Amino acid sequence: EVQLVESGGGLVEPGRSLRLSCAASGLKFYDYAMHWVRQAPGKGLEWVSVISWHSEIIGYADSVKGRFTISRDNAKNSLYLQMDSLRADDTALYYCVKSGGSSPLSENAFDIWGQGTMVTVSS
Amino acid sequence: QTVVTQEPSFSVSPGETVTLTCGLSSGSVSPSYYPSWFRQTPGQAPRTLIYGTNTRSSGVPDRFSGSIVGSKAVLTITGAQADDESDYYCAMYVGGVIRVFGGGTRLTVL
Q1: DSSP character string of B18-76
Q2: In terms of C-beta density within 10 A (0-12 exposed, 13-18 middle, 19 or more buried), how is residue B82 classed?
Q3: Would you call B51 and A110 a contact, using CB atoms and an 8 Å cutoff?
Q4: C-beta of residue B80 within 8 angstroms of C-beta of residue B11
Q5: Tens digit of pLDDT for each residue in A22-69?
Q6: How far is CA A78 from CA A10, A33, A58, B19, B22, in A?
Q7: pLDDT tens for residues B41-84?
Q8: Which of B34, B91, B96 sits opposite A59 (nearest CB)?
Q9: How many A×B Cβ pairs under 8 Å?
Q10: B7 near B90, Cβ under 8 Å?
Q11: Best mutation site among B7, B50, B97 for testing chain A: the one with the most A CBs within 10 Å?
């Protein structure tokens, strides 16, 4: 069974940094592109970032570009999201999502979802 | 910036067929946008229902189907049941590696 377990969320002051992790199991992690998707409290889903299986293709939503950095370690079956210069509107539940293919252009971008980790940005 | 549009809410009676739509501010939806559909109940992570316009994810009942009708992607739920009451989201590939979600539709079955 595929499992995605996010961690690293918490309460952080505006302007500070946080690093999220996603531990994957039950799959050949290196075969798949991975996404981060977030959901602010009471709001809809927002795509955040994607990384290809070999880390050579990366993309970000305009709302996080220049502040967030996605990365992965295939040897550790792990996905990461480094979040810098955090703002109040980054407050959200952050989901790690496995793609159905190795490319960020896969037609099945959001195949399996984790349960999410909550990030709260507040002073 | 491309906006993906969905009905904010929709009501249906049990047993009826419901069609939810997903449109694009930039024009008509085509299969090249890889429209996908997701269902989310309160307190739970989303679950993928449909991808690539009309391919059901593993384990999704065939009561759920996807298509493109006119200029929009459509999710059809045949024979709505009480436990279909959820938030439904669509997402599109809009170019580069960018994906955009719609604002979601809250489906009420009453």
Answers
A1: EEEEEEETTB---GGG--EEEEE-TTS--EEEEETTTEEPTT--TTEEEEEETTEEEEE
A2: exposed
A3: yes
A4: no
A5: 999 999 999 999 999 999 999 999 999 999 999 999 999 999 999 999
A6: 19, 12, 16, 38, 33
A7: 999 999 999 999 999 999 999 999 999 999 999 999 999 999 99
A8: B96
A9: 73
A10: no
A11: B97
What is the C-alpha to C-alpha distance for residues A39 and A110, in angstroms, rounded to an integer? 15
Three-state DSSP at A16 gives coil
Of B97, B6, B92, B49, nearest in space to A113 by CA:
B49
DSSP letter for A76, please.
G
Kindly compute the dihedral angle of the four CA atoms of residues B86, A21, A48, B55, in this order, to the nearest 10 degrees.
-50
List strand residue ranges (DSSP E) for chain A, in order: 3-7, 10-12, 18-25, 34-39, 45-51, 58-60, 68-73, 78-83, 92-98, 112-113, 117-121
Instruction: Write out chain A residues lying below 8 Å of B104, CB-based.
Output: 44-45
